[in-house]
Design goal:
By secondary structure, the chain is of the alpha+beta class. It has 3 domains: 13-223, no CATH class; 254-303; 312-434, Histidine kinase-like ATPase, C-terminal domain (Heat Shock Protein 90, 2-Layer Sandwich), CATH 3.30.565.10. The chain has 15 helices and 5 strands. It has helices spanning 2-13, 16-56, 61-82, 84-87, 105-110, 116-150, 152-155, 168-171, 178-252, 254-274, 276-304, 307-312, 314-324, 346-367, 403-412, and strands spanning 329-333, 372-379, 382-389, 416-420, 427-434. It has a 5-stranded mixed sheet, covered by helices on one side. β4 and β5 form a beta hairpin. α2 (16-56) crosses α9, α3 packs across α6 (116-150) and α9 runs antiparallel to α15. The longest helix has 75 residues, at 178-252. The protein is elongated and about 130 Å long. It starts with a helix and ends with a strand.
Length: 435
């Protein structure tokens, strides 16, 4: 019996939560729309007056126009504070450009006039009133219809009903009896009541959406353009660093061995007639040089496009990396990343492999660590990579250090890279890639 009671309580309380959410949002939207109209009227009157007078006058006009821009910014900030509760989205405040240090009074006065966003704030302050009036009238009408209609039964007796008055219910063919009037008006009130959340929500979203477009849209577009430019620059930088590293590795490794191989073969050719035993020894050394050169070329190819990554996926490729590391690596990788359905985009897999490979290389060369922990997991639309070691620390992303190219590669993919490495350790490299 106690279990039955508990199930009954849960089933009865379940619909209450969505209902409370609807009522709460209705209160937020109604307050936003109804209070927005007086604010919009004040904003419209003051900003229009300041703009007209500021443009009309020549000497006094510029300071007045600049002051009007600052006032428009204040009204815009009020809207940025009120809007997120309606749209459930953050209103990102634009970065208004401050006057340069030591700028004169004229530059300070012209500063808000020479920027784009203050003009958008001013336009919003003057153009927002028609939208506010529309939302206010519609919201007030629906609230009035809902309240007056649903409570009509309580005050019908107090209303005058002259015989020559033709109401809407009579126009629709209903009789003018008290019962018919109450039934009709209550039905109309219920219609307004049930559609009230939808109508008020539409008015609030329309007004808040217009405000967000005017007050943050330009900033969002500008930030997106800036981000794309930074990603493109990071991709170019990462590619240049990778090419320079590949060129250096080939020059210092396989190229030197091939030069020595050519010299050994030439010496063996000269020794064939005079000293066959020495020629055999030289050929054995040349054969060893060939094997070492092939091993170095395989290592370089694994750093560029490892076949195991293409054939078996990211978990297997990272396991191979951890196995080749000179420092013990405790590996934890999401196994779903290797499944056919869970595999990432090849570009994301390559970037993740590159991040782990470079991080493990840095750990082996510079950290002095005795152990390393690697975690790779997917959370929603992000791939998280954490490389932690117990070394001496001191790593950072400053220019001239090996992690710079790693940061550029991650930024080019639209991800983020952070390094926490106090002196004395430990060092944590954390990367996030979109997927």
């Amino acid at each position: 019996m106690p279990s039955v009671k508990r199930m009954t309580t849960i089933s009865a309380a379940a619909p209450a939560a969505p209902m409370r959410s609807v009522v709460r949002q209705l209160g937020i939207d109604s307050r936003y729309v109804l209070l927005d109209l007086p604010l919009s009227i004040i904003s419209f009157a003051l900003l229009l007056l300041g703009f007209v007078v500021g443009v009309s006058l020549t000497v006094v006009g510029l300071p007045l126009l600049a002051g009007t821009m600052l006032l428009a910014r204040a009204f815009a900030d009020i809207q940025r504070l009120a809007g997120p509760a309606v749209l459930r989205k953050e209103y990102r405040r634009p970065a208004y450009r401050s006057p340069a240090p030591g700028a004169g009074w004229l530059s300070r006065m012209l500063n808000p006039i020479t920027q784009v966003q203050p003009w958008l704030d001013l336009s919003h302050g003057m153009l927002g009133m028609p939208v506010a009036i529309f939302g206010f009238v519609l919201t007030l009408t629906w609230w009035s219809g809902a309240v007056a209609g649903t409570l009509y039964v309580l005050y019908d007796w107090a209303l005058p009903h002259p015989p020559d008055n033709v109401g809407l219910h009579e126009f629709l063919g209903l009789s003018d009896t008290p019962g018919q009037r109450v039934l009709f008006n209550t039905a109309v009130g219920l219609f307004f009541l049930f559609t009230l959340p939808l109508v008020v929500r539409g008015c609030a979203v329309l007004r808040a959406g217009f405000a967000r477009l005017m007050l943050t849209g330009f900033t969002a577009v500008h930030e997106r353009i800036t981000t794309l430019e930074e990603q493109r620059a990071a991709a170019v930088s990462a590619e240049a660093i990778a090419l320079r590293r590949l060129e250096r590795d080939i020059h210092d490794g396989p190229q030197q061995r091939l030069v020595r191989l050519a010299l050994d073969l030439g010496r063996a050719q000269q020794q064939l007639d005079s000293d066959p035993e020495a020629a055999r020894e030289t050929l054995r050394e040349a054969l060893a040089q060939t094997r070492e050169t092939l091993a170095e070329l395989r290592a370089l190819s694994r750093g560029i496009a490892p076949p195991i990554l293409v054939d078996r996926g990211l978990p297997s490729a990272l396991a191979a990396l951890a196995g080749r590391s000179t420092i013990p690596v405790d590996l934890a990788v999401d196994p779903d990343l290797g499944d056919a359905d869970g595999r990432l985009d090849p570009a994301v897999e390559n970037a993740a492999y590159f991040v782990v490979a470079e991080s493990l290389t840095n750990v082996a060369k510079h950290s002095g660590a005795a152990e390393c922990w690697l975690t790779v997991a997917r959370a929603g639309r992000r791939l998280g990579i954490v490389v932690l070691d117990n070394g001496t620390g001191g790593a950072h992303l400053a220019k001239g250090h090996g992690l710079t190219g790693l940061a550029d590669r991650v930024r080019a993919m639209g991800g983020t890279l952070s390094v926490i490495s106090p002196l004395g350790g430990p060092t944590e490299i954390r990367a996030e890639l979109p997927c």
